[in-house]
Amino acid sequence: MPKLPNPIENFPRPPRLSEILKRINPVKEVIEDARAIIKSGREEISSIASALRVEGKPPLESTSEEATSNRVAEAAAEPTPLPKPPEIALEAHSLDYQLDTLLDDLQHLETEHLPAQGRLQGLPCDCIAKAARDLRRHARETIPIAARESKEATIFSEMAAEGDRLIEIGTVEAVRSGLYDAEYLKHAGTISNYRKAVERMRQELSPKSQEPCPECETLKELSRYMKYQRKQREKPEGSKQPS
Questions:
Q1: What is the predicted pLDDT for the residue at 212?
Q2: How many Å separate Cα 16 from the centre of its chain?
Q3: pLDDT value at position 64?
Q4: Which of 45, 66, 175, 216 has the highest Cβ tally under 10 A?
């Protein structure tokens, strides 16, 4: 019987372990060196960041180990100052701001929306209801502020109730019906009385409340801009924009 050939006789032999180690060792050294560099870099960055957290400190001019250690020690020795709490407007300022906002709401109703009987360029709109919502909200906001200042707050409750009625009869459907045209003019007189009363309240505030209030002026400017934007949206399509 003839001898069968060995099927794996011609297969290449695997490399010896010593040869494999010779190839792996240089790679391991490169990886270890890279890890050491990364670790050193992280420590350096952490030290620099800690030193820079101290308020008023200029950027580090040296990254040496000694300089970094000194900066970190200084950062640990000097406590970081706490942020200042935000300034809060005085209560009198808050009341004055609320009264000024109410004057805007009242004047818009008195001189614009109610005399026009809820119409813009002859077309029915819900401008009375929208302006009345602002009046009601601002009147309700003023009640606790006035109470804290020992001011009579009943008038603000009355303004809020007036706002409720104007919201009810100031819709587009109510204006289109024509049923409340005479009532709109009567409410214009009522709103005028409220406006005069609020103006007197502002005059009766202590002189301290009339000091400049940057926060209040910013809020007023924002309120005026929002009202201008709302009036622009309320204009019927095709109307000319003011130049």
A1: 58
A2: 70
A3: 58
A4: 175
